[in-house]
Amino acid sequence: MPQAAGLQRRAGALPETVITAASNVYTSPRVAPLLVLGFASGLPLALTSGTLQAWATVEGVPLQQIGFLTLVGTAYTLKFLWAPFVDRYVPPLLGRRRGWMLVTQLLLAAAIMAMGALSPSSALQPLALLAVLVAFLSATQDIAFDAYCTDVLRKEERGAGAAIKVMGYRLAMIVSGGLALILADQWIGWGYTYMLMGGLMLLCALATLWAPEPEHVATAPRSLREAVGEPLREFFTRRGALAVLLLIVLYKLGDAFAGALSTTFLIRGAGFSPTEVGTVNKVLGLAATIVGALAGGSLMSRWGLYRSLMAFGLLQAVSNLAYWMIAVSPKSIWLMATAVGIENLCGGLGTASFVGLLMALCRQRFSATQFALLSALSAVGRTYLAGPLTPPLVDSLGWPGFFLLTVLIALPGLVLLHMLRGTIETMEKNGA
């Protein structure tokens, strides 16, 4: 019996219900609804961007006016500005997180259907304003959904939750970005396609009713001023806060550089046709990302946060060599497919652990604001470093040298991760 007692002590004195078997983590009542909720989160994006632009193009809208439609998605970038409002105020139904999700989903369904009643050729301005409203509501739904995931998932479920929400989001992008174009062009037309998409959003609201409330419900901030200032004060009073923020910028930086011009490289640098690149990226790339995210979520439930971040971060870095192989090898569609598959698989693993890290960093009372701010910070490397710096690096080093450099760019994040091991393990054990 002493041996059994020792095993129990090594388990960390956690209750048995907390130790979820990896094989069952995706069927957890807290994880399973996130597939449909992730679908609801991803559905509006293409309807206000690529699909809307395709509709306007088919109806003969001038190119300059189509260009202005790209500004519709500004709400997704600025959503952290009204995240404190979502933290502070509680709708009368379903609690603080699910209440906001239900309200935005119902409004989104109505607004998307209303878009289907208009036409870009005859009512571009009202249609664009509706698209802005859809983007705003969608960004607000994302705020509430990210906060809900942070609040409802147990720590050993965060990887699985991140994976399943990514899967739902990607599936929605296929439906609203790919399937919608086929339906509009070949079957039911643009207006009815948008109405169908609004109906799908309405069905997704059922998952919000099905989803459980968090086991521990934190009280909302007492004022809007507290909702704005307290999340920042609480975060920056933590030990190592600035180093953790730097880790968020650096962790996926090598991956961001490798992917910044990957399509341009495959077409212009490696000589593949747009059809070949599109088919491999859309089909194999998507499948590999989903498999990687699901595998990452399952492994995280057993390995813990730090070990998963380190293992998947190393794989992310090494997988950039797959693009280097394409750059130095004779043209081969099989090599290209294998490389894209490997890179997306490892990227999916890294995404699962990285989203798990963002969830772990959020205090439940302010999870909407803190997650919105942290996710905005995570885009800094991709938007302001990888995007502008990749072209001159390619011009200077060539494609093979550039992809070797992306492996080195990933290393500072991994070194910093190792230095913060104690901080991350303590945070995971005791909460943010």
Please give the structural blueprint:
Elements: H1 2-10, H2 34-47, H3 50-58, H4 63-68, H5 74-78, H6 83-88, H7 95-116, H8 124-152, H9 158-187, H10 189-210, H11 224-236, H12 241-250, H13 253-260, H14 262-269, H15 274-303, H16 305-319, H17 321-328, H18 333-361, H19 367-378, H20 380-419, H21 421-430
Helix pairs in contact: 2-8, 2-9, 2-10, 3-9, 7-8, 7-10, 8-19, 9-10, 9-15, 9-18, 12-20, 13-20, 15-16, 15-18, 16-18, 16-20, 17-18, 17-20
Mean pLDDT: 84
What proportion of the residues is helical, as a percent range? over 70%
The secondary structure category is mainly alpha
The largest β sheet comes out as: none
Separation of the first and last Cα atoms: 35 Å
Series of H and E elements? HHHHHHHHHHHHHHHHHHHHH
- Treating each run of at least 4 consecutive H or I residues as one helix, how many helices? 21
The Rg value, from CA coordinates, equals 22 Å
Uncertain runs are 1-23
What general outline do the C-alpha atoms trace? globular
- Strand fraction: under 5%
Number of strands: 0
Structural overview:
This protein is an all-alpha fold and 432 residues long. The chain is built from 21 helices and no strands. It has helices at residues 2-10, 34-47, 50-58, 63-68, 74-78, 83-88, 95-116, 124-152, 158-187, 189-210, 224-236, 241-250, 253-260, 262-269, 274-303, 305-319, 321-328, 333-361, 367-378, 380-419, 421-430. α15 crosses α18.
